[in-house]
Amino acid sequence: MRTFIFFFLIIVSGTGGELCVSRAMRGMGELHDFGPKSIVDFVLRALCQPWMWVGVAMMAVGFFSLLAVLSFRDVSFVVPVSALSYAAGAFGAKAFLGERISQNRWLGIAIVCVGVTIVWWSGR
Amino acid sequence: MTSRPGLHLKTYLAIFVIVIFAPLGSVLLGKGMKGVGSAATWTFNDLLPVFLRILSNGYIWLGIGSLLTFFVAYMMILSWADYSYVQPSTSLSYATVAILSHFFLGELITPLRWLGVAIICTGVFIVGRTSPRAHGAH
Fold first, then answer.
1. Which of A6, A61, A71 is the best substitution to test chain B (most B C-beta atoms within 10 A)?
2. Is the pTM of this model over 0.80?
3. Containing domain of residue A14, as a range?
């Protein structure tokens, strides 16, 4: 049960954080000039986006949940199971960012889910 | 991508760094956290000393360093190579994680787990082979 809760946090909070950062970056416009000054300026502007802070906070929760689960489960169990974030990312991108997910991508995600299920069995 | 030989070498080198350092980071974090130990009750009073032990653990910092190395290599390669070329090659990291955790941490990888890892690699490969920008995306 403890394992399940932490995986839920790793996947939902980690992926949710990436989606929020992605949403913040959409509001920024594309970066064209890669000089030091424009990169610093870009980062400072990114920090003014509220979604950026929500995203960073959620990613931090995801990272510490990963550390927590690594304290009592095998690395060779934790990392493959967290591949479930591909599925969470696709559903989230569709719902939250309005992206369209191609059929091939759904196929890949379904295969990842089969693999995760098998790794999960191997850890019981 | 163009077919300059130097560019190929640079690309393979960056993929190698990605496929080694991302899993190495996880393995080092795992090693560090096994040393830090699990919190007993998960209350705030119990978590604070665990948090301090995490911050003072060398393996954790090495792990974070590995993950940063991976991240920089990943950003760099995306500046010259296509995402749909890079992402499928990183699916190999799931195999590297199993190999490294077996040799460095002595974890027992059962055939069932190997099967699961191989299927995940296949799935991630297919996810990455699709176009990063589907038609009709905003």
1. A71
2. yes
3. 2-122
